[in-house]
Amino acid sequence: MAGIKRASRRELFGWAMFDFANSSYTTVIITVVFCIIFPRIIVGDGPEYRLGNFLWSTALSISYLVVLLTAPLFGAIMDYTGSKKKFLFGSYILTVIATAALYFVRPGDILLGIMLIVLSNVGFSLSEAFVSSFLPDLGPPEDLGKISGYAWGLGYFGGLLSTAAVIFGLNASVYTMDNFPNLRLVGPLTGLFFLIAAIPTFLWVKERTVPSSLPKNENYFTIGWKRLKKTFADIRDYRDLMILLAAFFFAYCGLSIVISFAFIYGDQVVRWSGTTQILMFVITQFTAAGGAFLFGIMQDKWKAKKTLMLTLVIWLVTVSLIYGVTEVTAFINSLVGASFKEEHIFLVIGSIAGLGLGSTQSACRAMVGLFSPDTKSGEFFGLWAFTGRFSSIFGLMSLGLLQIIFGLQEAILVCSVFFLISVVIIFFVNEERGKIAALKHSGE
């Protein structure tokens, strides 16, 4: 990674536009709109929607299992063949088509809904890893935090714009059978947004990886496995990356729950109004974007490890406050003599949590970039995706089972446990040693 020059502004913008584009999927489908449509209307097992919530977490977990099994291998093949853009394009097209096909999911079509969520989320999750593998080539190590934060911050504006178009254009905050003709257009509109907004990425981002010729009696899958085996054989040299991935595992267990269930929690536990839901979405997009930009700058000046730990502490505090929102609301009302509702305090807490939403993921991505040899970025970001998706399975299934037994409010406390474990593990990462290991294995 030594001697890498910062890419042109146009290329950086093109790369960041993929975060802008793919945020439409994760925001509209996974976090804000379709995640409520699925348990409420497609499954429809009210009033607590425990089966719908469990099936939703199961669908996401299946998709993450597919990514877990394929991402590291695909990453190794990308590095060897110099075909990052081809793999990125394939995952992008899969996401767009499967998301648009959600139009065909009607109330009661549970199996079709699960299948399309699995396919679309596999495409999205792989594309997230594939586009991230370009990061180490876009600038010197001291700039990667800013570059990653810039893209992640821009992504939240993409999420804001796409979700605003869906909610206001389709009246998609009204989850009733009468409004289903509008709600079924959520998938096609989201797919179209992703399709168009990602075009600059494929026009302006350069493929810098030099392809290697295929040896006799070999194929790309056997080459990919051999590269992975060599990486694991050298695992001691990459110990800081492994410690980071262990910390990321537990952090993302918590984050995957927040991303997939925050708006479900607001709907089912807090019982917020449609207006508060929209306000929460808009405010958190701005605070998340601001957090990604701010912490990205801090990361390059203040070290990535410290920045990541700070974002995890923010999560610890906010999840605890979310669980006790009833008591927090009563305390504030008695303190100031006001009559705030729980949804108002939940809105404030959620806005603070937004600061850690993009910054935690952006900081992890930048640290993986710092610890990646220049010829193994696809492979290492494949391992990053592997870890993230394995943790998503573990986190979502944990919540899915716990909320069946205890209810959603009590189950959300498991996030605090995950974030606390992550904070403890990150203490053991040596940032400088990780960078030295990346330089040692560059060119292999």
TrEMBL record:
<keyword id="KW-1133">Transmembrane helix</keyword>
<protein>
    <submittedName>
        <fullName>Permease of the major facilitator superfamily</fullName>
    </submittedName>
</protein>
<dbReference type="InterPro" id="IPR036259">
    <property type="entry name" value="MFS_trans_sf"/>
</dbReference>
<feature type="transmembrane region" description="Helical">
    <location>
        <begin position="380"/>
        <end position="405"/>
    </location>
</feature>
<keyword id="KW-0813">Transport</keyword>
<feature type="transmembrane region" description="Helical">
    <location>
        <begin position="411"/>
        <end position="430"/>
    </location>
</feature>
<dbReference type="InterPro" id="IPR050495">
    <property type="entry name" value="ATG22/LtaA_families"/>
</dbReference>
<keyword id="KW-0472">Membrane</keyword>
<feature type="transmembrane region" description="Helical">
    <location>
        <begin position="111"/>
        <end position="135"/>
    </location>
</feature>
<feature type="transmembrane region" description="Helical">
    <location>
        <begin position="147"/>
        <end position="170"/>
    </location>
</feature>
<feature type="transmembrane region" description="Helical">
    <location>
        <begin position="87"/>
        <end position="105"/>
    </location>
</feature>
<feature type="transmembrane region" description="Helical">
    <location>
        <begin position="345"/>
        <end position="368"/>
    </location>
</feature>
<feature type="transmembrane region" description="Helical">
    <location>
        <begin position="277"/>
        <end position="295"/>
    </location>
</feature>
<dbReference type="Pfam" id="PF11700">
    <property type="entry name" value="ATG22"/>
</dbReference>
<feature type="transmembrane region" description="Helical">
    <location>
        <begin position="307"/>
        <end position="325"/>
    </location>
</feature>
<feature type="transmembrane region" description="Helical">
    <location>
        <begin position="12"/>
        <end position="42"/>
    </location>
</feature>
<feature type="transmembrane region" description="Helical">
    <location>
        <begin position="54"/>
        <end position="75"/>
    </location>
</feature>
<dbReference type="InterPro" id="IPR020846">
    <property type="entry name" value="MFS_dom"/>
</dbReference>
<feature type="transmembrane region" description="Helical">
    <location>
        <begin position="185"/>
        <end position="205"/>
    </location>
</feature>
<dbReference type="InterPro" id="IPR024671">
    <property type="entry name" value="Atg22-like"/>
</dbReference>
<feature type="domain" description="Major facilitator superfamily (MFS) profile">
    <location>
        <begin position="240"/>
        <end position="444"/>
    </location>
</feature>
<dbReference type="GO" id="GO:0022857">
    <property type="term" value="F:transmembrane transporter activity"/>
</dbReference>
<keyword id="KW-0812">Transmembrane</keyword>
<feature type="transmembrane region" description="Helical">
    <location>
        <begin position="241"/>
        <end position="265"/>
    </location>
</feature>
<dbReference type="GO" id="GO:0012505">
    <property type="term" value="C:endomembrane system"/>
</dbReference>
